[in-house]
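Read as amino acids, tokens; as here:

___
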Amino acid sequence: MKSHIWNMKLALDEAELAFKAGEVPVGAIVVDENDNVIAKAHNLKEQNKDTTAHAEILAIKEASEKLGDWRLINCTIYITLEPCPMCLYAILQARFKNVVFGAYDHKAGSISLGYSFQKDKRFNHKFSVIGGIEHFKCSKVLSDFFKLRRKTYRKVKS
């Protein structure tokens, strides 16, 4: 459990970078089987003008480049927010061993919406999912971001 909390803190550091850049504050890291960080990323949708520039996708790309393989079989991805269906499917395709996330997302989170790809027997790969690690801290970063955004929007609109 100590490892999960430590690694989620690293993902939260990435989320803070996204916050400062005006991006929805989601961070992700990928660790190998020895718990070495091999990739770090945060949302860059606004900066890159790219709907696929989610933290998870960017971290998967970086990890694949570093390892020289699209298969991330013995790796774990840590994400501050429950992955959306696009990201969870990319995680499935990358063959991750584990997915660990912080805040649940009842509006767009894959698992909360019932898209539990890790349980679908029709897929040829299975992985474990752990949710709620540092849930309060991960949720707070998101809440603070959207409160600030609404406040700024009201000022501009007035």
Q: What stands out?
A: DSSP finds five helices and five strands in the chain. The longest strand covers residues 37-42. The chain has a mean pLDDT of 93.
